[in-house]
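Researcher: Re-running this chain for the archive, since the previous output was lost when a drive failed. Same request as before.
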Amino acid sequence: MNQPYQFSLHSTFDRVELPVKEIDVYWVDALDWPTERLEELMGILTLADQAEMAGFTCAKKRQNFCLSRGLLRVLLGTYLGVAPADIGFERNRWGKLQLPGQSLHFNLSHSGTRIVFALSRLYEVGVDIEQIRPLRCLDRLVRRYCTPAEQVICQGLSLPEKTRFFLQSWVAKEAYAKAWGTGLAGLIKHFSGLETIRGAHLGIRGGWWAQWQPLALGPQYVGAVCWGITRDATA
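Model: Regenerated C-alpha cells:
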C-alpha cells in the first residue's frame, strides 16, 4: 500500500541555499537509510521501477537505485501534489528522465554516500556531485578535459589541490551537459572547450549558454548545479 504522506521535505532532505530562487537543491546521505528504512521507499516504486532495479546484479546498486528513485518520487510528488507512485516518467533521446506534460524540470546525481537533487519550474537544470578521492592518471585527465586556461591553473597546484580543482571543473561541465539534456554521451568531447573559471556563465562555441555555481555538500565532496532555458538537445 502506498503511503505518499509519510515523508516531508524538512525531515527527509537537507537543502542547499541558493541565490537563485527559481531553483531548489536538496541532498541526502545514504548512511541515513539502512536496509530496513529502504522498505519505506519500496512501496512507492512502480513495477517499471522495480524491473529497472532488478537489472542491477549488484545488491548495493539495487539499494542505491531504490533510494534515489524513491526519494526522487517523494520530491516530485510533493512539488506536484500527487502520490509519488502516480508519477510517470519518460526519457529524451539521450536517456534523461523527464516529466511529460509538466513544467517541472529535475535532475539528480550521486557519489559516495551522497545523493543530490535539483528542481526548477522555470529552467532546465543539471546537477552533479563527486566524492573527492585520488584519481589515476590525473595529469592525463587534466590535459584531455580541461581548457588551456584551466591547465595553466593546475600547474601551480599541489596534488590534493589539483584533484579538487579538476573534480570541481568536471562536475560543472557534467552538470552543464545534463542541463542541456545530452549528458556525457553528447558533450564529453566538448569538455576541453568548456571554460569554468570565467564567471558564472558556461557554454560551448556555437552552442547553448547557461549559468552554474558550485554546491556546498561537505568537505569530502564537490558539486555543481547548472541551469538555462532550453528544450532541445542537439549536440
